[in-house]
Amino acid sequence: METLAWIGLGSNLGDRQALLGQALMSLEARLGKAWRLSSLYESEPWGFSSPNWFLNQVAVFVTPLPADSVLGILLGVERGMGRRRPEAGTRYSSRPIDIDLLMLGQQRFEKQGLEIPHPRLHLRRFVLEPLCELEPGLRHPSLGRSMAELLEQCPDPSRCQRVIP
After folding, report:
1. Does domain 3-162 have CATH number 3.30.70.560?
2. For 19, which DSSP code?
3. Residues 31, 162, 124, CA angle at the centre, nearest 5°?
4. Which of 21, 34, 103, 153 is the most buried (most CB within 10 A)?
């Protein structure tokens, strides 16, 4: 059975737009053509300080794969693009690419290293803005609220703006 995989992409090092494009091409080679793509959004770093702002985007794929297989693909693309996870104790840092599995349909899944929906999705403006652009009425499987409601109630004060090409 196929389901929608909602995937967040971000970059704040190097040619951010080119890196997002490269990540998207790599994902499409493994998951098939993206069903929908949000606009690009520029946002302040979340959870750490850096002068380098992020470019973020949400992509939606239709996939029959289970959550752990999708996660394996995302981590493989990150590694292939030079993403190195920070050392223990350092949670967030600048990076050329960051790819997160935000939601997989309305599934709820928890296993070591993977929680679906993403446990901080509702706390991050840079995720909620593009999700709302694509589907404001989409309901969070655990919280039962729409993305529009979550954005309205989002405690994240950081700046996030749509990039007009």
Report:
1. yes
2. H
3. 70
4. 103
Residue 118: DSSP 8-state: -
- Mean pLDDT value across residues 129-141: 97
Answer whether 81's CB lies under 8 Å from 23's CB.
Answer: yes
% pLDDT > 90, the chain? 82
Q: Name the residue among 86, 96, 92 with its Cα closest to residue 26.
A: 96
Counting other chains too, the contacts that 128-135 makes at CB distance below 8 Å and 24 or more residues apart are 128/154, 129/41, 129/43, 129/160, 129/162, 130/8, 130/38, 130/39, 130/41, 130/56, 130/57, 130/58, 131/6, 131/38, 131/58, 131/102, 133/38, 133/39, 133/58, 133/162, 134/36, 134/38, 134/58, 134/60
Question: Distance between CA atoms of 141 and 130, rounded to whole angstroms?
Answer: 18
What are the tokens at 29? Answer: 């080679």
Q: Which residues contact 73 (CB under 8 A, 6 or more apart)?
A: 27, 30, 31, 65
pTM of the model: 0.93
Q: How many residues does the chain have?
A: 165
Over 70: is that where the pLDDT of 85 sits?
no
